Amino acid sequence: MSDALINGLAGAGGGIIAQLITYPLQTVNTRQQTERDLKREKRKLGTIEQMCQVVKQEGWARLYGGLTPSLVGTSASQGVYYYFYQIFRNKVETTALERHKKGIGDGSVGMLSSLIVAALAGCVNVLLTNPIWVVVTRMQTHTKTSKKDHPDRLPTTAPEEKVLSVIEPLPYGTSHAIQEVYDEAGFWGFWKGVFPTLIMVSNPSIQFMLYEMMLKNLKKRRSRSKKGNNGVTALEIFLLGALAKLGATVVTYPLLVVKSRLQAKQVTTGDRRHHYKGTVDAILKMIRYEGFSGFYKGMNTKIVQSVLAAAVLFMVKEELVKGVRLLLVKDGINTVKSKPP
């Protein structure tokens, strides 16, 4: 079994566990990002308040809306990402060693090379899995509607009135979301938001660059110690993953908001300020009608959710990789050796 496959499967497993733990936060964050109420005087609800409001008005199940396709997307996304990341990294490491033999460089993978490897793996991942995330976004942002609400308009009734007149004849499931996306924009509707998402590749690229840089420095310090042990504990992996994700999230969050706006259900009638024709149109309308603060809606929630998810993912993924390698060694099965990320 190759290291690429081991890392791919471990990444998928770690992603699923992280998703299950942090999914309610992700649902609330997506709703915060796609909130288009332009009334400045309206008090913004905190994360916990909004979670309680969703439970009170729509039930616990709504916090897990889109969980099934999200788990499929997470396993596919993490699996694809780690698989191709390891393949690209193996090639870069081989090239670096060959250059070292010729007297060029020290044989290690530099920061720029790590960034390029992560970006390439991210692009492959985005192009293959974007349709899944479009469906997940639709299901996360779907809310129960009342008789008074036009299907294509934003709710105009007060929250208290909506609670009294909530009607949802049929459950909104994955098939409904898929049909809605297709009816709205056809086949290519499943690649809505792909442009800002491709730019968002810089998020995991920055994340992995920071993670590997910190991990490399930590191992160097350990190897210089008297014991000469450069091993890293699960808790240290957890903290390094959290710090790396925090830095990447702060830098790229505005793009994430634009992506969510494009993938959510578009307003086709009424206020045209809420209808986005594309990435540039969305950015210009958000700046004009909401100001730059609109690009940071729900950022606090996202930082908590993404940092926790990334920390859990890194920790579980590394432990799974260690466990699988140990089992393979015991069974006498050789793997393609390479330096783990």
UniProtKB/TrEMBL annotation:
Q: Check the record and name the Gene3D superfamilies matching this protein.
A: Mitochondrial carrier domain (1.50.40.10)
Keyword set, alphabetical order: Membrane, Repeat, Transmembrane, Transmembrane helix, Transport
Asked if the record carries the keyword Transmembrane helix, the reply is yes
Q: Give one Pfam hit by family name.
A: Mito_carr
Which GO annotations describe the biological process of this protein? Answer: nucleotide transport; transmembrane transport
Lipid biosynthesis as UniProt keyword: no
Residues passing through the membrane, by range = 109-128, 232-256
Main location as per UniProt: membrane
Per-repeat ranges for Solcar? 2-91, 109-217, 232-323
Q: Tell me what topology the record assigns in the membrane.
A: Multi-pass membrane protein
Q: Where in the cell is it found?
A: Membrane
GO CC annotations on file: membrane
Q: The organism sits in which domain of life?
A: Eukaryota
Indicate the family of this protein. Belongs to the mitochondrial carrier (TC 2.A.29) family.
Q: Which PANTHER family match?
A: MITOCHONDRIAL NICOTINAMIDE ADENINE DINUCLEOTIDE TRANSPORTER 1-RELATED-RELATED
What is the protein name for this chain?
Peroxisomal nicotinamide adenine dinucleotide carrier-like
Q: Which organism is it from?
A: Durio zibethinus
Q: What is the lineage of its organism?
A: Eukaryota, Viridiplantae, Streptophyta, Embryophyta, Tracheophyta
